[in-house]
Amino acid sequence: TAGGLDAEHGKDGSSALVVYFSWSGNTENVANAIAGQTGADVFEIVPEEAYIDDYNALLDIAAEEKEKGVRPAIAGSIDDISQYDIIYVGYPNWWSDMPMILYTFFESYDLAGKTIAPFCTSGGSGLSGTVGSIRELEPDADVLDGLHISSSAASAPDQAVSDWLESLAADQGETASNI
Protein backbone atom coordinates (compact mmCIF):
# COMPACT_ATOMS: atom_id res chain seq x y z
CA THR A 1 0.00 0.00 0.00
CA ALA A 2 1.37 3.41 -0.88
CA GLY A 3 2.05 5.78 1.97
CA GLY A 4 4.15 5.25 5.05
CA LEU A 5 4.83 1.74 6.28
CA ASP A 6 5.92 1.45 9.87
CA ALA A 7 4.91 -1.83 11.41
CA GLU A 8 7.01 -3.48 14.10
CA HIS A 9 6.94 -6.82 12.29
CA GLY A 10 4.79 -8.68 9.84
CA LYS A 11 2.19 -11.12 11.03
CA ASP A 12 3.70 -14.04 12.96
CA GLY A 13 6.66 -11.82 13.99
CA SER A 14 8.14 -11.77 10.49
CA SER A 15 10.97 -9.39 9.73
CA ALA A 16 10.33 -9.74 6.00
CA LEU A 17 9.05 -7.16 3.55
CA VAL A 18 7.68 -7.55 0.04
CA VAL A 19 8.36 -4.45 -2.07
CA TYR A 20 6.92 -4.45 -5.57
CA PHE A 21 6.02 -2.36 -8.57
CA SER A 22 3.24 -3.64 -10.80
CA TRP A 23 1.77 -2.02 -13.88
CA SER A 24 -0.66 -4.70 -15.08
CA GLY A 25 -1.33 -6.54 -11.82
CA ASN A 26 0.84 -9.58 -12.64
CA THR A 27 3.67 -8.65 -10.28
CA GLU A 28 1.12 -7.68 -7.63
CA ASN A 29 -0.37 -11.20 -7.78
CA VAL A 30 3.07 -12.73 -7.20
CA ALA A 31 3.83 -10.23 -4.42
CA ASN A 32 0.60 -11.13 -2.66
CA ALA A 33 1.39 -14.85 -2.96
CA ILE A 34 4.83 -14.28 -1.39
CA ALA A 35 3.34 -12.17 1.41
CA GLY A 36 0.63 -14.76 1.99
CA GLN A 37 3.13 -17.61 2.27
CA THR A 38 5.74 -15.76 4.36
CA GLY A 39 3.69 -13.38 6.51
CA ALA A 40 5.79 -10.49 5.20
CA ASP A 41 4.71 -6.88 5.29
CA VAL A 42 3.98 -5.33 1.88
CA PHE A 43 4.96 -2.01 0.31
CA GLU A 44 3.76 -1.20 -3.21
CA ILE A 45 6.01 1.11 -5.21
CA VAL A 46 3.61 3.63 -6.72
CA PRO A 47 4.97 6.31 -9.05
CA GLU A 48 4.12 9.89 -8.11
CA GLU A 49 3.10 10.35 -11.73
CA ALA A 50 1.01 7.38 -12.86
CA TYR A 51 2.01 5.50 -15.99
CA ILE A 52 -0.28 5.52 -19.02
CA ASP A 53 -2.76 2.65 -19.36
CA ASP A 54 -1.94 1.91 -23.02
CA TYR A 55 0.65 -0.90 -23.18
CA ASN A 56 2.26 0.15 -26.47
CA ALA A 57 2.61 3.74 -25.30
CA LEU A 58 3.99 2.44 -22.00
CA LEU A 59 6.72 0.54 -23.83
CA ASP A 60 7.81 3.76 -25.52
CA ILE A 61 7.88 5.61 -22.20
CA ALA A 62 9.79 2.77 -20.52
CA ALA A 63 12.36 2.73 -23.34
CA GLU A 64 12.84 6.49 -23.08
CA GLU A 65 13.22 6.33 -19.28
CA LYS A 66 15.84 3.60 -19.64
CA GLU A 67 17.73 5.45 -22.38
CA LYS A 68 17.83 8.68 -20.34
CA GLY A 69 18.45 7.03 -16.96
CA VAL A 70 15.31 8.62 -15.53
CA ARG A 71 14.54 8.02 -11.85
CA PRO A 72 10.75 8.35 -11.45
CA ALA A 73 9.67 9.58 -8.02
CA ILE A 74 7.94 7.15 -5.67
CA ALA A 75 4.77 8.19 -3.84
CA GLY A 76 5.09 7.28 -0.17
CA SER A 77 8.01 5.70 1.64
CA ILE A 78 9.05 2.95 4.01
CA ASP A 79 9.53 4.63 7.38
CA ASP A 80 11.92 2.11 8.94
CA ILE A 81 13.46 -0.36 6.54
CA SER A 82 16.09 -1.28 9.14
CA GLN A 83 13.59 -3.57 10.90
CA TYR A 84 13.54 -5.99 7.96
CA ASP A 85 16.09 -8.76 7.41
CA ILE A 86 14.79 -10.08 4.10
CA ILE A 87 13.29 -7.97 1.36
CA TYR A 88 11.49 -9.58 -1.57
CA VAL A 89 11.64 -7.13 -4.49
CA GLY A 90 9.26 -7.57 -7.43
CA TYR A 91 8.95 -5.90 -10.80
CA PRO A 92 7.95 -6.51 -14.40
CA ASN A 93 10.76 -6.98 -16.91
CA TRP A 94 10.74 -3.95 -19.25
CA TRP A 95 13.23 -3.93 -22.10
CA SER A 96 15.35 -6.65 -20.43
CA ASP A 97 15.68 -4.53 -17.29
CA MET A 98 13.83 -3.46 -14.19
CA PRO A 99 11.58 -0.43 -14.62
CA MET A 100 13.58 2.67 -13.76
CA ILE A 101 11.43 3.29 -10.67
CA LEU A 102 13.17 0.23 -9.15
CA TYR A 103 16.48 2.06 -9.51
CA THR A 104 14.84 4.92 -7.59
CA PHE A 105 13.94 2.43 -4.85
CA PHE A 106 17.42 0.89 -4.60
CA GLU A 107 19.07 4.32 -4.58
CA SER A 108 16.66 5.58 -1.87
CA TYR A 109 17.26 2.91 0.79
CA ASP A 110 20.36 1.46 2.43
CA LEU A 111 19.99 -2.30 2.10
CA ALA A 112 23.48 -3.19 3.35
CA GLY A 113 23.37 -6.37 5.38
CA LYS A 114 19.90 -7.27 4.12
CA THR A 115 18.92 -10.35 2.15
CA ILE A 116 17.25 -9.39 -1.14
CA ALA A 117 15.13 -11.94 -2.99
CA PRO A 118 14.16 -10.55 -6.42
CA PHE A 119 11.18 -11.71 -8.45
CA CYS A 120 9.85 -10.59 -11.79
CA THR A 121 7.12 -11.17 -14.31
CA SER A 122 7.42 -10.93 -18.06
CA GLY A 123 6.03 -12.26 -21.29
CA GLY A 124 9.11 -14.38 -21.82
CA SER A 125 12.25 -12.38 -21.09
CA GLY A 126 12.92 -14.04 -17.76
CA LEU A 127 15.04 -12.18 -15.24
CA SER A 128 17.45 -10.99 -17.96
CA GLY A 129 20.36 -9.31 -16.16
CA THR A 130 18.26 -7.84 -13.36
CA VAL A 131 19.71 -9.94 -10.52
CA GLY A 132 23.20 -8.80 -11.55
CA SER A 133 22.00 -5.20 -11.65
CA ILE A 134 20.62 -5.50 -8.13
CA ARG A 135 23.92 -6.99 -6.94
CA GLU A 136 25.73 -3.97 -8.44
CA LEU A 137 23.28 -1.53 -6.84
CA GLU A 138 23.43 -3.30 -3.46
CA PRO A 139 26.99 -4.69 -3.14
CA ASP A 140 26.72 -5.03 0.66
CA ALA A 141 23.49 -7.05 0.55
CA ASP A 142 23.05 -10.77 0.00
CA VAL A 143 21.13 -10.92 -3.28
CA LEU A 144 19.57 -14.35 -3.78
CA ASP A 145 18.66 -16.07 -7.01
CA GLY A 146 15.52 -14.58 -8.44
CA LEU A 147 12.16 -15.96 -9.43
CA HIS A 148 10.66 -15.38 -12.86
CA ILE A 149 7.00 -16.04 -13.50
CA SER A 150 5.61 -15.64 -16.98
CA SER A 151 2.74 -13.21 -17.43
CA SER A 152 0.48 -16.10 -18.40
CA ALA A 153 1.22 -17.91 -15.10
CA ALA A 154 1.07 -14.82 -12.86
CA SER A 155 -2.66 -15.20 -12.17
CA ALA A 156 -1.98 -18.43 -10.25
CA PRO A 157 1.58 -18.14 -8.87
CA ASP A 158 1.17 -20.02 -5.57
CA GLN A 159 2.98 -23.25 -6.51
CA ALA A 160 5.86 -21.47 -8.26
CA VAL A 161 6.24 -19.15 -5.27
CA SER A 162 6.15 -22.09 -2.86
CA ASP A 163 8.79 -23.96 -4.85
CA TRP A 164 11.00 -20.84 -4.98
CA LEU A 165 10.68 -20.18 -1.25
CA GLU A 166 11.60 -23.82 -0.58
CA SER A 167 14.69 -23.54 -2.80
CA LEU A 168 15.75 -20.27 -1.12
CA ALA A 169 15.32 -21.87 2.28
CA ALA A 170 17.37 -24.89 1.23
CA ASP A 171 20.11 -22.61 -0.11
CA GLN A 172 20.08 -20.69 3.18
CA GLY A 173 19.99 -23.87 5.29
CA GLU A 174 16.63 -22.93 6.80
CA THR A 175 13.02 -23.96 6.58
CA ALA A 176 10.77 -22.07 4.19
CA SER A 177 8.79 -20.56 7.08
CA ASN A 178 11.97 -18.84 8.30
CA ILE A 179 12.98 -17.25 5.00
Give the SSE map.
Blueprint: E1 16-20, H1 26-38, E2 41-44, E3 46-47, H2 55-68, E4 74-75, E5 86-92, H3 100-108, E6 115-122, H4 130-137, E7 142-143, E8 147-150, H5 158-172
Parallel strand pairs: 1-2, 1-5, 5-6, 6-7, 6-8
Antiparallel strand pairs: 3-4
Helix pairs in contact: 1-5
What are the main properties of this structure?
alpha/beta; two-stranded antiparallel ribbon; 8 strands; 19% strand
Please describe what this structure looks like.
- This protein has helices at residues 26-38, 55-68, 100-108, 130-137, 158-172, and strands spanning 16-20, 41-44, 46-47, 74-75, 86-92, 115-122, 142-143, 147-150.
- The strands form 2 sheets. Strands 1, 2, 5, 6, 7 and 8 form a 6-stranded parallel sheet that branches. The chain has a two-stranded antiparallel ribbon with strand order 3-4.
- With 179 residues, the protein is of the alpha/beta class.
- The longest helix is centred in the C-terminal third of the chain and has 15 residues, at 158-172.
- The protein is globular, with a radius of gyration of 15 Å.
- Strand 6 (115-122), helix 4 (130-137) and strand 7 form a beta-alpha-beta unit.
State the major sheet.
Answer: 6 strands, parallel
Give the overall average pLDDT: 90
Number of helices: 5
Distance between the amino and carboxyl termini: 22 Å
What form results from the Cα inertia axes?
globular
Q: How much strand?
A: 15-25%
Poorly predicted segments: 1-12
Short précis:
The chain has 179 residues and is of the alpha/beta class.
